[in-house]
Every structure is written in C-alpha cells, then in structure tokens.
Design a protein that fits this description.
The chain is of the alpha+beta class. Helices cover 35% and strands 16% of the residues.
Amino acid sequence: MDEKTFDWQRFLTRWSEEWADAQGRSADLSPDDLEDQQRRWLGAAPATDADFVRMKARLGCEMPPSYREFLRVSDGWRHAGGFVWMLAGTREADWHEDASGLGGNFDEFWGEEANPEEIRAQVGLWSRGLQLDVQSDATYVLLDPEDVGPDGEWAVRVWSSWRASDPERYPSFADFMVAMYQEFHQLEAGRDGEEGAAAFVNGTTRAQDAAVARARVAALGGRYEEAAGLLREAQRYGRPRATELLQQIGRLGGPYGAGGRPPHPGDPCFLTELLPLHAVDLLGSRRPVDGLRFADADSFPETARATVDILREMSAGTFRYRPGGAFGEAVDEAREEARWGDTDTAWRILRAAVPLWEPLGPDHIAPVGLLADPVLAPVLTAERRLELLATPRGGEQGPAPARVGDQDPGGLSWLVRDGGLRPGRPSPCGFRMVLVEGATPDELPALLGSSPDTSLAPPLRLWDTSGHHRPGQRVFSSYDDKALLSVGRAGANWSFGLEGSPPFFSADRFVSPAQAASAGGGRAIVVWTEWSRPTPLFHVSAARGGTPLYAFTVRDGEIEDISGTVPAELAPAALGFGTPDLTAQESAAARALDALTDGYGVGLPRLALTEGRLHSFESVSWKRPPAPGEKHLTITMG
C-alpha cells in the first residue's frame, strides 16, 4: 500500500462515521464511546511537528511512512478492530522490551533450526518491537524495526493470548489498519439479525455486496479467479454470501477463502449439494454422522427424513448426485460409464453438459454436489475441476477453456511399471487379474462367484473391498484362496476382475479361473504377478469355452510350468524372461502385457483402480481343495 495515494483523512473519516452509525444498535455505550459517537470521530487531533520531534528524541528513530502519515491525521485511535480499544499516538508508542515476559518461550520455539527463515526471523520480536496497543483484549500490536520492506515500511505483528497461533503479520501499518477496519465490518455484519438490531448498511457494505454480485456473474462465466478475488475481499468485510460462493470455488480447486460455514436446511442447495458434501467431510474425518443435528425432526421437520436417507446412503457408499434437467441426465449417463471404470468417457459426458447446468439459487455457482457422489468424485481430477470452473454455465457466456486430456494410459503394462496400482511408490504392486470375453462386468459373479448367490457390492475403493466383503474375518485357511475382485470394462466385449496385493502364489495347488470364466464360450486370460516378495513371479493362463489354451509361469527368472501352445508374441524367452534381474523381469512383464493388449484389444482403467470406486465380488478359490492325505493350516484369530 502506497502512503502517497492512501487517503488517511478520507479512510479514517469513513471508518469513524460507520462506527458511529453502528453504535445505534447497542443498548448502552460507555461515556467515551458515547462522546465518540456524538462527534463521529474515533481519532484525536493531528500530531504536530513538535510531537514528531519529541517522539524521535524519545524513541531514537523516525517512524515508518504509513504510521507517520496516519499520525499527521490522528495522533492515536480508538477501536482498531474488535480487540484493540486504544492505539498509540506519538506520546504512547514505546519499545516493548519484552515487558510481557513472552520473549523467552517464543524465541526458543522460533529459533529452532528446523524452522523456515520467516519463522526464525521473529526471534527477538518481543524485545525489539515498538508497542502500539495501549488498551486491548489481551492483544499485542508491535511494529518490527527489523522487518522492513523496500518502501521503508515496518511490518506489524499482532498476537492475542487467546489465539493459538503465531503473531499475524501485516506488511505495513496501513495494511494493519485496513485489516482492522475490515474486522470491524466483520463483527458488525455478524450482528445482523440480532433481535431489535437495525441492519448494518452503508456505502462500504453496498459496494462490497455489489462486488459479490459481479463475482457471481464472473464465476458463472468461467472467470473463477476474478470471482475469487472479489469474493475474498468481500469476505474480509464479512459480507453474506461471499463465504458460501468462495467455498464452492475452493471445493473445485480454485482459490480458497478463510474459514467456512456449515450448511443450513433453508438453502435451496441443502439436500442436493451442501448436506452431502458436509457428510463427506464428516466421514473423511472419521466422526460419526448418526448424531448430525440436521436429522433431528423436531428442529428440522421439513428436511430431517431426507437428511437421514442421505446420511445412510453416504455411509453405505450408495449416494447418487441427482441434479435435474439435461445436466442431470448427463450425470446419470456419466455415472454409468464411471462405475465400470471408463472415467475418461464419463468426463467427456460431463464436460459437454456443464454449459447446460443451471443453479438452484442465487448462491449456487457450480455443481459441487458431484464431489459427494462416490463414483463421480474421482472422475473430477484436480485439472478437470479447474476446467469445470472455467467453463461458462448457468446462462452466462464466455470462451471455452483448454481441455484436459484423458487420464488413463490405456493397455495393461502400466500395472507393472513403477507406481502401478499404488501411485507414488518406487516399485510396482503385485496383482491378480482375470479378463473375460463376451461377458459384462455384472455377469462375472455368475461365472466366478464364491457361491450361487454372489452379487456385486456397491462401488468401493480397491483397498476397501476386504473390509466390506469380510468384516471382522477371524478364520484363515491355507487352501481357501477366494479373491476379492474389483470389476469393470476392459475393452470392446471384454470385462475384468482384479485384486491388488494378492496372497502368495502356490503353483502346486493353483487352479486358474480362466476355465470357469470362459464357460460362456468366449476367451479368458488370467495374469498373476508378485514383485515385493523374495521370489518375483509372473503367470499367464488362458482358456476358451471352458478349455485351457496355454499357461506359463516365471519364478525368480526361471521359466517353468509351460503348457499348451503359447502364442509366439508371449513366448517367455522372447519377452526377456529367464534372468534373475528384477528390473529385466519387470520389463519382460510389461512387454507381455503389451502383447496381450495388442492381441486381444484389452486394457484396464488406471484412474478407476487407483483413485476411484468399482463394484466388486468374492470369487471362487484360486487354489484347489486339499487332496486326501494333504495337510493344510487353518488359523482362527481371537
């Protein structure tokens, strides 16, 4: 802030007059406040040249520019925000010299070597700072003579004993005063609605409310950064609606505001957008949703029943975002694609429909309810969320944003590359997979289910399947190896079932499910890999119409168990197997999976498997039962 263009007289006059008008909402005023209200001025007389000479002689230095210009208009100030009741002028400002006794503890914490430089720079603040608070609610205001900007301004540090945080920093005294003016507005806006209180309305509130209206139009037109800038400023003034609109932009990856507010049943977006998102936050924090106050029929009779239904669906993972109109139809179509793994197609459907989306009310600027849908939320990657924000909608016009490319790499070999099913890890994760031709994903339980009545579970994350299918499992058998398969589409006329991090592969009792999976007449391919165990393994087996076609296993670089006629493009030796080098085996496995992709036109959806939710079921055992006389181990826990 440039003190040459900052009009202190105008700023302080406006602040004083708005403060005086707001006092009419208070039941009683102190004598000092009553006097200030009557004269409509929170300041004092301007400081004279003689005042500045005495101040310099007493303190030993000139004051920073914006504080000095302030003093030329008012030699002190009352009610700087809500917690500083008297701010120092030329006579009261003084070196703090750790008079509060806080320096020791703060300096020890700030001075730790692991702290970033901006934290360590605060060491000594309590000893060197110029104290400006004269009367306050346990709040200290210090000008820091060692934190000086290129414009000569000293930073202001503000700390309250009742705030569990470091002192808040303002680049200059002028920035501090603007923030305190905004704090005054926030507190007064928060009193709106009090019984008997007149509305807090003035030129500043009207200007900020107009900015909120412009922000809404900008947001709907895809100019979300412009909208966020206007809303963040309005939020600092406590303007209603600013926080709600900013939360929607922030939810979709745009600039955030400060804080947030819980939803309210009176909002037209409550049931479709706000409550589901609130439930997502609660579930993510591991807090129970059962006692949520919105489900109380006495307090919220009109929405309590629907709230209970939504919470039950959210807990079970079956909630569906249900907007209306053409956009709602597209959402249903996109969900159908995403629940079988085709997240790229799902996004293309949503992208085309975003311009058709219509808000439910004046405080609704984006379809944020998508983020509560367990199937569709993972489709909205960070880049796609920003594309959505930048897409004009709700009847507003604007240029279409640059399109985000597809997220899935296609094929199968990504499964055995670094990260694989566990993004960010430096090595691939083991898995077992069955690819089935001529069957839809929802038909796989009939072919491979562990029992005749096996059905698909609601869409789950890969790592949640065990807890859903085997809650509280206590008995574990060495011969029973039923896989928990997440399912989806693997290509034209192909489906897949996949389990990550399977148990140890036992070749002598392994029964490939390829035969059962191909019983419908098509082909089936089984792949099993292990990379994190002492003995790396890669297995492939195939069948058609219930009849085995071929199989081979590579264990620790040794090619074994070859049967049938292995296609030339899958010949283990030609692929590069036959070496104990783990990196070479991983490369050979990738070539094998590329050959399967090329030969059968199959692929698996990485985004759906690593970030999304897919249906799943418990399969038949991948091991045969023990033969007569064979030993097996059964472990019971607890």
